[in-house]
Specification:
Number of strands: 17
Shape: extended
Strand order of the largest sheet: 4-3-7-6-5
Largest sheet: 5 strands, antiparallel
Structural class: alpha+beta
Strand content: 15-25%
Length: 630
């Protein structure tokens, strides 16, 4: 029994050696590939030496250990460079230990080197898969078994046959375990190196700051921008060390606001003036960072130099303005009126833009005649049919002044009409069809409305989210304090919900929350009542102009309705899904000081309901409040 305990200790030594190597490689990741391979070889050599020093002596001078695994690992995963360090260390150690089996032991090490190198070249430039790792382990195990059976120490043929499979199995375990560790760590370091390369080699300015706005990591571009040669020189510095006090304060306040609100800063543009007077444009995006527990830990940002882009945009804008002025005279519709308001010239596109009044838009027609035809034919949707003649004459005079107007026609087309008065009193009119633009505007407005709805809705239950609840309760508390109308709040907590999730799974838990949301929404009878998901398995029902007794009645209706649904809940003392409700009311004369206190009182009532046995409601009102309206 002692032999195998020692060999298991050898196996633990392999695990320790692999742990040491992972720490070394992680700490000195900047070393070259050759240096890392030499280090790996030295570590495996140390492992082989340790294994032999902890070996089991079968007979004087004959030892068994896991040196084959360590040597093979160096050859398979480190190649000839690593093996050049591991093999001499292993052979020298076995030679120094000596004994009758020394020559045999050194031959086994050489065989492990040759077979390991063969496997290495077969897998060259490939990250080993789990199957390959297992195969490598089998190969090493077979080496151990084969050498012990084919090259047994003198006089130990029978013993070798008995222990060879066990020694081979231990070498297989050691090699497979180490191979899995190396495979995982190579994948991990590859991902780390990719991220590191992406950060350090990116042309933009990348940086991460801690909660105090001190740099934790930057790329080389940030260091060069601030006159440093290495990105490591930026660590620990703040903008107060790098910028003028006024700008440093502005950046600090900006970043504190981002971390406080959690709202990212996206593509913020600013123009900065360097010490030499040169102006440069930058765009910055910053986002708050949270750990897995949701705690704020810092801020990540990226800044881009967009000076050249801004210059090009300015040139394009100037060119566009020039082109626009030229195109204004050659657009789809063009007309010219003299100083007295008579039409002098128009093209066919101008007349086609106004299909119902086209007959009136001929040279020699007065602007008032054209406007009269527009009114009589109902061509414009914004003009009534019974306008006065005085209005027509006034509009005709105003028609000759500079103005831009958008016209909605009877056929749902939109026209942009731009009127410009020349120095000689004549007027030029340019007409463009902007129907597609207006349709896009309306689509964007509709999309914005839909997005607003999504931003205000809890994705799971379809009711209002916490953000809407916080905004609404603040608004309603202020109105209640101002008008004296009562305001009630129900805080709802699903009883034993964690046990429900544990028993039925999270998909069933989600369905349960949806059902609770529907049930609570059914209890809200008025458009002004707000049902919201407060967080997790908690819901809220805000009831403006509702006294405590009415709120308590609604709480009981909801509780009973949910219980009647009889959703199975084997982990609950009631056998079905139930909820506890806390009810609180504020009203004129005895108001809570702020929304937080109303929520706190409702939460206290909810706590009492849960403490009293769950599946019930409890109420709480300010001292002296009788629960009646008025």
């Amino acid at each position: 029994m002692g032999i195998w305990q020692t060999l298991v200790g050898n196996l633990a030594t392999v695990a320790l050696i692999m742990s040491i190597w992972m720490h070394i490689q992680y700490k000195f990741y900047r070393l070259s590939k050759v240096q890392l391979k030499l280090g790996f070889g030295a570590t495996m050599g140390l492992g082989a030496m340790a294994s032999m020093l902890l070996s089991v002596q079968l007979v004087p001078g004959v030892y068994i250990d896991l040196r084959v695994a360590m040597v093979a690992l160096a050859a398979i995963y480190g190649g000839p460079i690593s093996l050049a360090v591991t093999a001499p260390a292993a052979i020298a150690t076995r030679f120094l230990i000596g004994g009758a089996g020394a020559h045999n032991g050194m031959e086994v090490i050489v065989i492990a080197c040759l077979v390991g190198l063969t496997v290495h070249y077969l897998n060259r430039e490939k990250l080993p898969t789990t199957v390959a790792v297992a195969v490598n382990g089998l190969v090493v195990g077979m080496i151990s078994i084969g050498t012990m059976l084919l090259m047994p120490p003198p006089g130990m043929e029978q013993l070798a046959q008995e222990i060879a499979p066990k020694i081979g199995f231990l070498n297989f375990l050691a090699t497979a375990f180490a191979g899995l560790v190396l495979t995982y760590f190579r994948e991990f370091t590859l991902e780390r190196d990719i991220l590191h390369a992406a950060l350090t080699q990116a042309p933009d300015f990348h940086y991460v700051k801690n909660r105090n706005s001190a740099f934790v990591v930057t790329n080389l571009q940030v260091a060069k921008l601030h006159g440093r040669k290495k990105s490591s020189e930026m660590i620990g510095l703040t903008d107060f060390d790098l910028e003028a006090p006024e700008r440093a304060t502005a950046l600090f306040d900006q970043e504190r606001a981002i971390m406080a609100s959690g709202e990212p800063l996206i593509d913020h543009e600013e123009c900065l003036t360097a010490a030499d007077g040169r102006q440069a444009w930058y765009t910055s995006s910053k986002v708050a960072l949270r750990n897995r527990q949701g705690d704020m830990v810092g801020l990540a940002g990226v800044t881009r130099d967009i000076t050249e882009k801004k210059r090009l945009e300015q040139e394009v804008a100037e060119s566009r303005n020039l082109l626009s002025r030229a195109m204004a005279e050659m657009s789809d519709g063009f007309a010219m009126f003299d100083r007295d308001g008579y039409l002098v010239f128009c093209n066919e596109q101008y007349r086609a833009s106004f299909p119902r009044s086209a007959a009136a838009r001929v040279p020699g027609a007065h602007a008032s005649e054209i406007i009269r035809a527009v009114v009589q034919t109902g061509e414009r949707r914004d003009l009534p049919a019974n306008v006065s003649e005085a209005w027509i004459q006034t509009t005709a005079r105003d028609y000759q002044a500079d103005h831009d107007v958008e016209i909605h026609l009877f056929n749902d087309h939109w026209l942009s009409v731009r009127t410009r008065r020349a120095h000689d009193g004549s007027t030029f009119v340019v007409v463009a069809d902007i129907t597609a633009i207006k349709q896009s505007e309306m689509s964007l407005k509709q999309l914005a409305s839909e997005m607003k709805g999504l931003a205000e809705t809890d994705a799971l239950t379809g009711i209002a989210n916490r953000r809407v609840f916080d905004e609404t309760i603040s608004r309603e508390c202020a109105r209640s304090s101002r008008t004296g109308a009562p305001l009630s709040l129900l805080l709802v907590d699903v009883d034993r919900f964690k046990k429900y999730n544990d028993s039925y799974g999270h998909p069933a838990g989600d369905d349960c929350l949806k059902t609770v949301g529907k049930c609570l929404r059914a209890a809200a009878k008025r458009p002004t009542d707000v049902v919201a998901r407060y967080g997790g398995e908690e819901f809220a029902l805000l009831l403006p102009e509702t006294a405590l007794d009415d709120a308590a009645r609604l709480a009981e209706e909801f509780r009973a309705a949910l219980a009647e649904l009889a959703l199975p809940h084997g982990a609950s003392e009631f056998g079905v899904v139930t909820a506890s409700v806390g009810v609180a009311t504020m009203a004129g004369g005895n108001p809570f000081l702020n929304p937080a206190e109303l929520v706190a009182h409702a939460d206290e009532a909810l706590y009492r309901a849960k403490s009293a046995g769950r599946n019930r409601f409890e109420t709480m009102a300010p001292a002296g409040w009788d629960g009646k309206t008025g």
